[in-house]
Amino acid sequence: MDQPSAEDPAARAAVETRGLTKRYRGGQLAVDSLDLTVPRGSVFGFLGPNGSGKTTTIRMLMGLIEPTAGRARLLGAPMPRAARSVLPRVGALIEGPALYPFLTGRDNLVRFDAADPTADPGTRAARVSAALERVGLTAAARKKARAYSLGMKQRLGLAAALLQPRELLVLDEPTNGLDPQGMREIRTLVRELADDGTTVFLSSHLLDEIEQVCTHAAVMTQGRLIVQGTVAELAAGSRGRLSITTPDPAEAVRVLKEHGVTDIVALEERVTGELPASGGSAPPLDLADLNAALVRAGVRVRAFGTERASLEDAFVALTGEGFDVAG
Ligand SMILES: Nc1ncnc2c1ncn2[C@@H]1O[C@H](COP(=O)(O)OP(=O)(O)O)[C@@H](O)[C@H]1O
Ligand SMILES: [Mg+2]
Asked: Where is the ABC transporter domain (predicted)?
């Protein structure tokens, strides 16, 4: 499936940016010196709240707008210079597909396919049927697009991106506005595509979603990249919340406070809190020492541990901000 050429060693990342920057005419610095590396074969989540620069980055990657500074490579080739050779190998869905509402789903795809000069008209019908099948729209193919739900429109947009075999799919907030069922369908589709070897780069402002479907992630705020890596690494970067079960919660709270645990919540026999950050002059808090201190203070401990660290914990630890999970 890879087509290595002199300019495009297959070993190169699917997406690579160095110092990529966009300042809009109004002066808004939307993307600030972005260094992004998306490994081939990954499902890469590009995570950030609204306004953090995700769409701007994607538009630069796809050659739709010019960067103010820096460079971007797609499948190893420089953008926008190599757009003509690279873009046919990249499927994209950016800010909702542009559909003809008065045409059926099938006829919309026929138009997309006809707009592709490399697409053989003789095999068009088969290509369109296969793409409809792939996104589960075969039964609705004869309905007019204006009668489609938001989820169906989004899937039709994906079908358009899948008319040709793609090495890379770039999806900008593909589940935006979808109900939970629609979101599940898109996630399943993304997994299937990844299983076939397609690299998927998808943006989202929903942490949850990234954790469920992505192997890798990058976190953006205000145009800047905070962190990137595998989802497992990112979650491991934070320790998660301390959780203790004890019949002596009041005494436990006192001991935890003494050891620098913050944001303590005591609910009946369960006490949870945030472990103090290590670093600076403070030595890291050893969980074994903390447990021993509880026991010394006469606190009877039934269970002691940290809750599973999530990407959200990592995000909060990195930025000191929460995420608007409801969107
Ligand atoms: N065409 C534009 N002209 C000026 N500012 C823009 C334009 N598009 C986006 N912005 C600004 O750039 C920032 C990043 O926007 P965007 O890339 O759309 O973020 P996201 O996709 O993460 O929500 C925002 O502050 C937004 O208001
Ligand atoms: Mg956006």
From this structure: 15-247
Q: 312 burial class (0-12, 13-18, 19+ CB within 10 angstroms)?
A: middle
Q: Using CA positions, which residue lies closest to atom 3 of ligand 1?
A: 24
Nearest-CA residue for atom 18 of ligand 1: 55
Contact 175, 206 (CB under 8 A): yes
Domain 239-308 belongs to what topology? Alpha-Beta Plaits (3.30.70)
Residue 49, ligand 1, Cβ within 6 A: no
The full set of domain ranges for the chain reads 9-236, 239-308
Cβ–ligand 1 distance for 55 under 6 Å, the answer yes
- Dihedral pair phi/psi, residue 309, rounded to 5°: -75, 135
Say whether domain 9-236 belongs to CATH 1.25.40.10.
Answer: no
Residue 111 vs residues 4, 97, 201, 258, 298: alpha-carbon distances, Å: 30, 13, 25, 68, 75
Rounded distance from Cα 55 to ligand 2 centre (Å) = 4
- Using an 8 Å Cβ cutoff, are 19 and 33 in contact? yes
CB of 324 within 6 A of ligand 1: the answer is no
Ligand 1 centroid – CA 224 distance (Å):
13
Per-residue confidence of the chain (327 residues) as pLDDT tens digits?
444 444 444 557 999 999 999 999 988 899 999 999 999 999 999 999 889 999 999 999 999 999 999 999 999 999 999 998 999 899 999 876 789 999 999 999 999 999 988 899 999 999 999 999 988 899 999 999 999 988 889 899 999 999 999 999 999 999 887 888 888 888 998 999 999 899 999 999 888 788 889 999 999 989 999 889 998 877 766 666 889 999 999 999 999 999 999 989 999 999 999 888 665 555 667 888 899 999 999 999 999 987 766 666 666 666 666 555 433
Q: Which atom of ligand 1 is nearest to the CA of 22?
A: 12
